[in-house]
Amino acid sequence: MNIGSMLIGLFGGLGLFLYGMKVMGDGLENAAGEKLKLFFGKIASNPVKAVFTGAVVTAVIQSSSATTVMVVGFVNAGIMNLYQAAGVIMGANIGTTITGQLVALNLTEIAPLFVGIGALIVIFSKGGKVKEIGSIILGIGILFLGMKSMSGSMEPLAKSEGFKSLVATLSFNPFLGVLVGLGLTAVVQSSAATIGILMALAQNGVLPLTVALPVLFGDNIGTCATALLSSIGTNKNARKAAVIHLSFNIMGTIIFMFLLKPVNYFITALTPDNVAAQIANAHTFFNIANVLIQIWFIKYLVAFANKVIPGEEIEEKLGVQYIDDRLLETPVIAVGQCEKEIVHMAQKAKGCLEMAVESLKNGDEELIKKVGETEDFIDLLEEEITKFLVKLSNEDLSKQQVDIVTSMFHVVKDIERIGDHAKNVSDLSREKLNKRLIFSEEAMEELQSLYGYTLDALTRATGSFENNNIQLAKSVYEVEEKIDKVQELLRDNDIKRLSRATCEARVSAIYLDILSNFERIGDHSLNIAEAVLDINHLNKLNESAMVNQILGEN
Which residue pairs, CB below 8 angstroms and at least 24 apart, start in 159-165? Predict the structure, then answer.
């Protein structure tokens, strides 16, 4: 037996397997698009819904490690509590079994056909859903080519006395099998890859289910390594989420090690002549049964994590709330969370404007100071969001996601400028207060009328971005036109007051500056609305191109 050739074949096959999983997962993720974002956007405290969310998301992105890393990120950002995190983590363990079931179909003989069809679709499609479907097909083909390579490289093991001796040792010492699975998965960072290796061995008739079962249990513990590493440097709650993930899998392994023989008997009875299918079924059975057992004890898992890591961060996090670099594992969800963060920033800018106008009316020095602090916070958000968008733009994004990310850069800048103009208004309010200037009742009413239109434009623009509402975005045009017209009228009125000597020049200068700032806020609100319309227009063009392509093929 040539060990060197076997290891090269195994290494290459494993590489193809992992790459096929990635291509297939990316295709599924991009094809799911908005639907995938909705799952993480509506996580409820109901543990069943959380488990369902974790299972679906993991089945789509083909990585329980990526899901748990995202969970750590969500908890670190303070937008998911530990009870929700526990449910999603449990669901991720179920979702990851889909890969094993797919491999168990044993389509290695027609794998080249999948590769050929998938490659042709990817190369000749112009983008959109068709290209993502091609990626899914191509990924499946590459995955099975990897399985074929691994299985072929391991054929000599069937005749190896040394390997037979190792299998016998594992048969008599199942806890050693757990350690093998744990170590292998921790190194490879993919339980699906470890299971693929087990199946390749099983297809050559050298690995019975009795030996594979403990290794499977160890796989689930080994996959916790990614989340544990990801939790380094996070807050206590995020580290607790990683502890929950680890304790859940360790507890499941302990339970099922006592049930090794009954589980072996049950799984063997389902598919008596197919060890590869038995391994896939055992993986699925173990994870579903483990969730059904432990879902009732989530509060105890959380209590245990609180004991292991005492204390809790209660201070408000200064900075971004919805984004975390760990979310970059799944760009679709990262895009959705970035949208939420931008809305958060827009709400701060709106509040900044409201406080500035209130300080103008009441001469409140504390409000003026608070506007300055809020504007500094908006600047911080702009910096953090822009950094995140730069990282996100370097990920493997679909054409639609690239368009959305590009528009986000512009929207963030417009919101930051709105904060600047609100700060300008508060500075003018301070100047008015310090110089003890008085606006006439007529002038204050005029400013209030223009402010009403300005606030309306900003509210509509923010709402259109948050809800991707085309009609609301279009309505900003009408409001912005009113702002322009009213501003011109108010400037004329101010000139008349100056000519009648009913207004001081210093008051007029401040008044006109405030009008200009309101008008500029209206302009930036319109820019946000136009970004929403541009994205929807590009999406329609992409969909139209895809339909034309399909019609052309037919």
Answer: 159/1, 160/1, 163/206, 164/206
